[in-house]
Each structure stands twice: as C-alpha cells, then as structure tokens.
Amino acid sequence: MATDGSIIEKESDVSCLNPYMTETRKRLVIASFWVVVLLGLPLWWKTTAVYRAQLPFAQIDSWVDRKACQLTFPSTFVVHLASIADADPKAHNHPLDYPTIENAIAASVDQQIYQANTQQCVEFPLNIEIKEWRITSDIIDLLKHTSEQREKSTIGRYDIFLAPQLPAPTSTKRAHVKLGNDRSMIITLREWTTSDIEESTAAAIATLLQEERERVQSIACDNELRERSNLDGLRTMKFSPMYQMTFSLMNEDPSGLQVDWDIEDAVNTYLRPFMSEVSVISNFSVDSQIQHFAQLAVTPQYMERQKLPSYYYLTPETLPHFINSAEWNLASAISTYPTINFILYIPAQNKSPLRIHNSKGQPVRSNAFLIPRWGGIVIKNQPKALTASGALAFGKEDLKPFMEIFVAQLRTLIGIHDLKKIMSPLETSHEISYESAPQTAVTVTELDAVIKQRIAENIVNSIATLKSLAQLVMDIPNMVVLDHIRTEVEISLDSLEQACQALQQQDYMKALTHSISAIERSEKAFFDPTMVSMLYFPDEHKYAIYMPLFVPVSVPMIMAVVKEFKEARRRRKEAKSKTD
Amino acid sequence: MEKSLFILLLAFILRLWLFNLPAIANTLATRVEVVTPITSFKRLTEGLYLYQHSVPPYDGGIFHQPPFLLVLFNAISTLPSSVIPIVYAAVDTYIGYLLTIITYDKQRIYEKFPTLQVEKGKKDIDPWTVAALYLFNPLTIASCVSKSTILFTNLSIVLSLAYALKGKTIHSMLWIALASYLSCYPAMLMPPMVLITYNWAPHQLSLGKQVQVSAMYFVSSLAMLLIASYILTGSWDYLYSTYGTILCLTDLTPNIGMFWYFFIEMFDQFRNFFLVVFQLHAFIFAAPLCIRFREHPIFVVIVLSGIMSIFKSYPSIGDAALYLGLLPVHGEIFKYTRYGFLIANLFLYSATLAPIFWHLWIYAGSGNANFFYAITLVYNLGQVLLLIDVVYAMLRRSFDIANPQALGKEVIQR
C-alpha cells in the first residue's frame, strides 16, 4: 500500500507485483532450506554420538577387592637327610621319622615368620619334603655331590642337604651352613639329633624367607604398609621391561686434562654377564658419553690438615645437589624407557682431591654414592703424576674398580638384596659360608627374590592402573572409549589371571611373563592419547560450542516458517469470509 | 575480429611471458592463496613421478588430485617441458574465448525478455569485454601462471555452461560431471545447467523429463569417469585420497578459506559434526537459488560459483577468478549494485595484507595464524558482500521491470 507515493510496500500477494515470486515458490525456498536441516539431524546424532566400548568393570572390581584370585607365593623345600651307611652307628640306632620332622619344621618356620604379619592378602604356602640322601663317609666335596642328587631346580624350590659333620667339628657353633649358588644349601650339624635337625633347618628356611615374604607382603597388601616400608623400596627403580643405561664420563676442566675411556669393552666384560642374568626381568640398552666442562652445582668445602695433604669434600647434605641438571645433558631422547645414569666424575685440578664425607664426617673410601631411582656416581680424582700430554685414558683394567661400584649400585637400583645380609640373622647360632658367586654378580637366590618381588609389584600396580582407568571412565560419561582400550584391558585382566594361576602352581617364570604383560597392557590403555580427561567436557559446555553458530542461523529460518504459517492462516480466513 | 584476435593473443603472450619469469612463476606456484593441496602443480609432479615409477601415487598422503590429471600430464610429460606453459596459457585463453560465446548466447536469449525503459536501444556489454575482463584479471593470470589445476575445473564448468546454452544436454552434463569429478563441489552446478537446457533449448521437454534425462547423463558420465579412474590406477584408493581429502579436510595447510583455522582449533569430538555442518552449508544454497531464480539459471551458476569460492574446503583465487569472469555476462545488473567501492577496497586490502601477514607469521615469526586468518575473513567478507549485492541487483531489476511505477522508489517488504 503506497502511503505517500515514495514507498511501495509489497503486497502479500506478491505475484501481481513480481512475476517471479509466487507463493508456492516462496514456500519451496523455505522448505528446501529445512530439508537440508532435517537431513542434517541424523548426521548430527551420528557424528556426536559418544562411542563407549563396554569395559569389564565387574572383573576389575573383583581384582581390586582381591576376590578374583588369591595371590600365593608358594615355596618348596626339599630336605635331603643324610643316611650314612658306614660312619656313625648312633644314627642307625634311632631311625628318623620323616613325616614328624616335616611337620615340625613347617610348624617352626610358620611360628618364626607369621608372628610378624597378620594380614592375609597374600598366602605363602610352604611345602617341605624329606628325602633320604645316601652318602658315604669318603665323600669330601659334599657340594659337588649334591648337584648330582637333585632334580633341576626352579624358582621357589630349594634343596637343603643335611649331614653330620664328618671330620672333627672345628667350630663351637652347632651347625655350619654353606649356601650354594643354585638354590641349595648344605647344613652340616655337629650333633645329629632330631631336634637339632629340625631347629637348624627351620631357622635356615625362616631366615631365607623372612625378608622376602615381608617385602612381597608389604607390596601386595595395603598402601600404608608400603609407604613405611624400608628404604630399599625407595631406592629401587620403578619397574620397566626395558631400561636405558647411560654411562657418562664428566670432566670438569678439560683445559688441563684430556679424558678418554674404553667403556664399551668394560661394559662388555664386567656388566654384560650381569645384564644377561637379569634379562628375565628387564633388559638394558647401554650408551655412553663424555662431557667436558661439566661444572659442579655445589661448591665443595675445604679441609685443611696439618701433616697430611689437604682435600676438598662434599657433605651428605650437598650430595642431592651434585647433579647439575640444568647444564649436564643427561636427559635422553633416545627412548621413553626409564634411564639409569652412571657418572664417573673427574673434578678440576683446583678442586682436587675431592672426597665425600659420610654423616660422621669421615671420608668415604669408595668415593661413590647412589642417587635413589636415578643412578650412581663415582668421583675419580686426577692422579698426581699425569703424563706430560695431560691426557687421562681409562683402559678396561683401569675401569674395573669403577665398574664394580657401578654393578653394586645397579644391583641396588633394580632391587637385588644381598644374600649375605639376608642370612646374617642366622650367624648368631650358625656358621655360614658362601659358595663364591660366579662372574655374574648376582646369585640365583638373589635373583629369585627380585623376581618374586617384581611379580607382586606388577600385579598390584596393574590392578591399581586398571582401577584408576575404570574410575576415570566412570567419572566422565562423555569420554570416548575405543575398542582397542577394551582389548588392552581385557588382555591385561587375562594376563593377571594367568599370572595368578601360574603363581599357584609355583611357576614363577610364567607368572613373571604374564605379570609384565599385565602391567604393560594396563598402562598402554591408561596412557592412550584418547583417554585424557581434559578432552571431554560436561554437557553444558556443549551449548557454548553449538550456540554461537546455530542460534544466529536458526533465527531467520524459524521466523520465515512462522511468518509463512501466519500468512497461510490469514489467507484461509479471508477465503472463508469471502465464501460466507 | 581484429579486436578479438588482439585480446586473445595478448592474453596468451602475457601468460607465456610470465611463465618465463621464474621469479614470478615459482613464487606463485608456492603461494597458499593461489594453490591449495588439491590443486598444487608441485604435488601433481610428485604424484606423476610416483605414477611413472609404478608406485601407487595415492598412498603417501601427498597427492590428492584425480587420476585423469595424472594421465593427462603423463601424456604431456612425454613432450618437451615447454609444452606445459603453453597448455596452461592456451586453456586459460580458451576459457576467455568461451566466455564470449556464452555472452553472445545469453544476449541472444535475453533479447526476447522485457527490459527496463532506460535500457531500450542501448547495446549490451560487448562479449569481448567480458573475455578481456576475465583474461586480464590479475587473479586469473596469477592462478594460471601458478599452474594450479583448478584451471581444468574452471574449463569444464565454462564448457558445460556453453554447451547448455547451445541446448546440448549430453555435452553439458558430461562436462559438468568432469568438473564434479575434478573437484567435487561443481556437482551443485548441475541443477542450474539442467534449468538452462530446460528453459532455452530448442527441443522442449517437460521439466520432469528434462531432469530425468540430464540426471541420467550426469550420473552415467560420472560413473564412467570413476570406473575409468579405477582402471587407470588399479585401485579405489584415489577416492579417499581425492574426495576424502576434500570432504574430510585431512590436510590442514592454510588457505584463503574458512575451514583450516576452524578445524585446527576444533575439539576432536566435534570435528566430524562440524565437518558435516560446513559441507552441508556449502551445498544448502543450490536448491533455493534454483527455485528463486528459475528464469535466470546463468545467474544461478554465477552465484553458486561464488558460493563455492567462499565455502569450499580448499578455495583459492582461481575459484574467485571463475565467477568474477562470469559475472559480466549479466552486465545489465551492474547499475543496481551498491557496494562496488567497498568491495573493491576489501579485495585490494586483503590482496595487500595477505602476503604480508603470511610473511609475518611464517617467516618473521612476529605474527601468528590469527593475522592471516583475519585477512582471509576480510577477503571472504568482500566476496559475500559482492554476492549479496548482485543478488539484490538481480531481484530489484526484475522487480522494476515488472513494476515500472516502482522505479527509483524504495521497496520494503511488509
């Protein structure tokens, strides 16, 4: 309706004004937009659907509650009792009653160990068998003889050989215990009586198992116990199937000294046997480096002495700051495995000789120290008589003392406990001797203890990881859980099951393999890039994502539809009034 | 005639001359504004090398162009290397020539249409002016000299339009199928092409019949092309590598479109959803425009080309060159446009600042991605304004022809 002639309003019936815009066409245009929107709706549903693979929560819970499988660390002791045909006639008079002795030993061991721990989340079944051991008095080397007597031993199965002391007793102690390398010990008793046999055997078994059991129990049972557990646990590296070992030769001041070392040869000679021995638990990759201008982060103190030469020293309080992590390039990008560092540090001339004091203020003889869960350091002062060229080259032989220290430190870092230390409680009543360890720097018994400990650790840690994963998934309902996560979790649970069953059958090697698989799989699932909680947000945040685009777009589209409806209604009314 | 020859020759020689300036040709071939991952000649060479050495070219994630281009350039590569610039220059010049034919045909058809009083007795735009506007548009030249393969898509679209105006349904559908095959989006130009043949072809079919016949031709030629490609490469891998890249935006190399920045910032969870939204958005205008401008299907082709150039996933200035070249075909609406000055400034502004901000971001390091993205927004704002303006001009002119009494008066919708 033209009001003043300058403005033309389009009539509702536009066709009279505009031949191209009929009412049907207008509706078609609006409809064609809406058709696309409606087409988009199922796509919207499809593309924003959160895919959640069903995780076996019930199974995880049963592991967390320890209902799925009872952890057991069984051990078997085969006690070989000597029956001497021609020596001591007294022994013949009193034939030994084997079943009674078996029970007596078992009861005695239980009494000695179990009084310490009351918790029953781990079981330690003890199986004692007694066998007859026929020897003759002309056997000198018992040790050699024993190896022929036994079946092939496995982890958790020990052989104890008992015999009266055949030559005249030399010691005042009532028995002599000789520990072999291969899960065997020989106890020679001064007096061949039933009570002595029982007591000595039980004491030896109890001492051997005591610490190992305590450690496994503290790992497997609740966390409070673990936290107050001994320092060893804190020193030991977190388990990994692979470690990266880095040997660094640090030279503080290369201006006066050129250094070099034959580390490859030394590692191959002194370390390789050890590494191959522990490879059942973890493998190692070894690399080395020489760094110059490795400045110390701490300033050593000066000790002036009147008659003796003066020296510089570091106190135990300053040792944690010894590593100059800002400047020493120790972080490795080669692999994602945990790194164990070993450093041979050569201080500058003006700080030599540098020594380490212990907490009592006395210099430490080895001049070495260990950084828990990190590595070991040895300080080597420059020799006084340097060659004219100012060069210091460590050959294989020169490196031997340092490698010995490194091996000892590595033993601690991967959780090997000294057998001598374990057995020391027995020394009060028994005389102990050890068969010399082979070149590997680790005895079979020591390794067994580590394996058991690692099995317990892996099982407990993978249960904890799975528990956290289940917690995370349940807490965030919007989190996408892909199929491969479920697969990993299922494999991990399966491995746990198998590890536990293998333990019950006393097959520790199998249990170790499965426990490693369990921890690896569970961590793989937990650290998957899609399982990051930051990626997912609650529903109300979604509105903030949708609204900025869709509200402005939808306003004109909805308005057009509303207008069209009004128009249609008005027209119907008009038509009605016309017919009326 | 002399004028026409002069224009074509000059355009051809200009291109050849620019091809011979390595500084310009090589620079243009790497500019993100000019070439995209799906049109880059460098990537085509890469794919061609693999193809010639019997390595599946679509495996590496570098090459995203359809197999026909491989075959074409495989053939060209047997000729001396100077042939490639000649091919590009010739194709571009040919597009210019086709534009004159399109303009002739359009003017012949529109003669019968009612016009405004002021237009009576005045001559329409000279077809050779249309060609010159295309051939000497800096965007066209830059795109051609960069050896961007978008040129072949543009050629197919223009050929399809020319054939449609001649009333040749089969040819038109074949060429638009080829264009769709080359870069996916031109599929939305198929309905207006059908409308052109339906509206103006000498043999009159009913609309339903025409749609059926055309759809059949379109689908069968497309299927033929796809199957032939399968035979040429020996596997269906190329489908995901070409159309998958276009539709799923797997390559986030910056360009002058809206997609890359948005999908770099996008939360992974919503990526698929917004991909669907963005791609649907590009296609949503096809039907309404065809319905609204049923009588002016050439205009629909122009506007849809513009929409492609703005909302496709990997736009380049080659897309803009196409619809800017087609726009003068409907020269009569220019007198209604209102934002000419503003739009020209927006184009100049973004043309100046885009390379600068790119340099600041990538080379100098003193800027960041926001700088460059802001400029692409300005550029796209310019394009959107231009489209709004021409659509307005078209509507107003039609309205004024139908209602001469409304001339010069404001029209409001109640």
TrEMBL record, chain A:
Membrane disposition: Multi-pass membrane protein
Presence of the UniProt keyword Nucleus in the record: no
Assigned GO CC terms: GPI-anchor transamidase complex
GO BP terms, alphabetized: attachment of GPI anchor to protein; GPI anchor biosynthetic process
Localization of this protein: Endoplasmic reticulum membrane
Keywords for this protein: Endoplasmic reticulum, Glycoprotein, GPI-anchor biosynthesis, Membrane, Transmembrane, Transmembrane helix
UniProt pathway annotation: Glycolipid biosynthesis; glycosylphosphatidylinositol-anchor biosynthesis
Alphabetized InterPro entries for the sequence: PtdIno-glycan_biosynth_class_S (IPR019540)
Domain of life according to the entry: Eukaryota
Transmembrane segments: 28-45, 543-562
Range of residues in the leader sequence: none
One Pfam family cited in the UniProt record for this chain: PIG-S
Family membership noted in the UniProt record: Belongs to the PIGS family.
Protein name: GPI transamidase component PIG-S
TrEMBL record, chain B:
Membrane topology: Multi-pass membrane protein
Cellular location(s): Endoplasmic reticulum membrane
Regions crossing the membrane: 148-165, 172-194, 214-232, 244-264, 270-291, 298-314, 346-365, 371-395
GO annotation terms (biological process): attachment of GPI anchor to protein; GPI anchor biosynthetic process
Record pathway: Glycolipid biosynthesis; glycosylphosphatidylinositol-anchor biosynthesis
Record key words, sorted: Endoplasmic reticulum, GPI-anchor biosynthesis, Membrane, Signal, Transmembrane, Transmembrane helix
Chief place where the protein resides: endoplasmic reticulum
Cellular compartments per GO CC: GPI-anchor transamidase complex
Signal peptide start and end residues: 1-25
Coiled-coil region list: none
Family membership: Belongs to the PIGU family.
Protein name: Uncharacterized protein
